[in-house]
Amino acid sequence: EAGVTQFPSHSVIEKGQTVTLRCDPISGHDNLYWYRRVMGKEIKFLLHFVKESKQDESGMPNNRFLAERTGGTYSTLKVQPAELEDSGVYFCASSPHRGNNGYTFGSGTRLTVV
Amino acid sequence: DAKTTQPPSMDCAEGRAANLPCNHSTISGNEYVYWYRQIHSQGPQYIIHGLKNNETNEMASLIITEDRKSSTLILPHATLRDTAVYYCIVRVAYYGGSQGNLIFGKGTKLSVKP
Q1: What's the pLDDT score for residue B25?
Q2: Is the dihedral of CA B45, A42, A22, B40 positive or negative?
Q3: Chain A residue whose CA is closest to B91
Q4: How far away is chain B from the Cα of A69, in angstroms, using its nearest Cα?
Q5: What does each C-alpha distance from B71 to A59, A61, B24, B60 come to in angstroms?
Q6: Sign of the CA dihedral A49, B30, B91, B72?
Q7: Residue B43: which of A44, A91, A99 has the nearest Cβ?
Q8: Which pLDDT belongs to residue B97?
Q9: Within its chain, how far is the Cα of B59 from the centroid?
Q10: Which residues pair with B13 in a beta bridge?
Q11: pLDDT of residue B22
């Protein structure tokens, strides 16, 4: 089966611009998660979708970040306007609705804000 | 904050077993122990998980102490490709509902040497 796909793999934008990251989960996985690692820090949870609904968005840093998952398939994470401290690697992961198996992570999007 | 404690780094000779310890003294009865690893800048990769019994799969073995306050991940024959940061994570088990998020700590940087 295809894994979790993230696009783009790299993005360099100027401060104040907008960037949209995309994640395609494994087909049939109801759970979709966004995580990120900023320079020198641990990987941090951002939010969790169950199908198209936001189950937990307690990790979203501020209102410059907007995540959507229309139709319960792929998800987008928009940063508007981007700030320097948003630079880092953004990971997406998915898992089936039931069970306690591990998540499958994508390769991430490396975002650099200059 | 992460509920686990791991040594920051370990070395292992190629072909030998790598034993990675993890302390989770405050683990609750309904929390699983998960292990993930991150190779270089790739996305985290699920390895194995367990509740109270020892577990084994094609990648590794997980030994959980009887009091569940610590565990050890065993890579039976480490190769150079196993060089990575290994994360031990505890997470509440979900029964019949959706899964929750993961809290990553700093992990153990395992270096497999020829």
Answers
A1: 93
A2: negative
A3: A100
A4: 16
A5: 28, 33, 8, 13
A6: negative
A7: A91
A8: 52
A9: 12
A10: B113
A11: 97
Query: B94, B12, B85: which is closest to B49 by C-alpha?
Result: B94
Best residue in B45, B98, B102 to probe A by mutation, most A CBs within 10 Å?
A: B98
| Neighbour-count burial for A18-56, b at 16+ CB within 10 Å, e otherwise | ebebebbbbeebbbbbbbbbbeeeebbbbbbbbeeeebb
Query: Tell me, what's the pLDDT at B102?
Result: 87
Tally C-beta pairs within 8 A across A and B: 65
* pLDDT bracket for residue A71 (50, 70, 90): confident
Tokens found for residue A107: 């390769």
DSSP bridge partners of A91: A35
Identity (one letter) of the amino acid at B55?
E
Residue with tokens 């089936």: A96
Q: Please report, for chain B, how many H helices and E strands are present, in that order.
A: 0, 9
Give the mean pLDDT of B3-25.
96
